[in-house]
Amino acid sequence: MSAIADDAAVSVVADAAAVEAVADDAAMDAVQRRLMFEDENAAQRKLFDELGIPAEALPVDRFTPLGRMLYKAPSDGKWGEHELDYLLFVVADVKLLPNPDEVADVRYVNREQLKELLEKADAGEEGVKLSPWFRLVVDNFLLKWWDCVESGTLPE
């Protein structure tokens, strides 16, 4: 997760992937099992499970839906991702408690710092790695939306 403004804006991409039947769920950990089988709001659930942000800190009516993206990425040969992700945005001052099983690093960056981070990731410098979906969002949407986020006109 990368926040996109100095004022602690939180950019959230919550996936709403269709889930195929799981033949053997014994290999799933408790978090995966809860995500697969409990009925709860996906965006709030992702925020809590990945970033430790409780649902009451970000009510659903504060999210701005911005579109969706079909995403596919291979992983380790056994697992991969192929999902339809809904892009939701919210600006809030929240306390983060990242889940180390889900999030390797968290940074608040301004526009120039994000561009520098992208360059480092592209060059393989300083061990900077970005998730493929985040890179797609940045390249296709985020940099175009930045001025709207800063001016508060994104919902328009």
From TrEMBL:
Query: Where does the record place the Nudix hydrolase domain?
Result: 1-136
Output the superkingdom of the source species: Eukaryota
Quote the cellular component terms of the Gene Ontology held in the record. cytoplasm
InterPro entries in the record: NUDIX_hydrolase-like_dom_sf, NUDIX_hydrolase_dom
Gene Ontology terms: biological process: isopentenyl diphosphate biosynthetic process
- Molecular function terms, GO-annotated: isopentenyl-diphosphate delta-isomerase activity
Query: SUPFAM superfamilies annotated for this entry?
Result: Nudix
* Family annotation (PANTHER family): ISOPENTENYL-DIPHOSPHATE DELTA-ISOMERASE (PTHR10885:SF0)
What job does this protein perform? Catalyzes the 1,3-allylic rearrangement of the homoallylic substrate isopentenyl (IPP) to its highly electrophilic allylic isomer, dimethylallyl diphosphate (DMAPP).
Q: Please state what the protein is called.
A: Isopentenyl-diphosphate Delta-isomerase
Give the source species. Answer: Musa troglodytarum (fe'i banana)
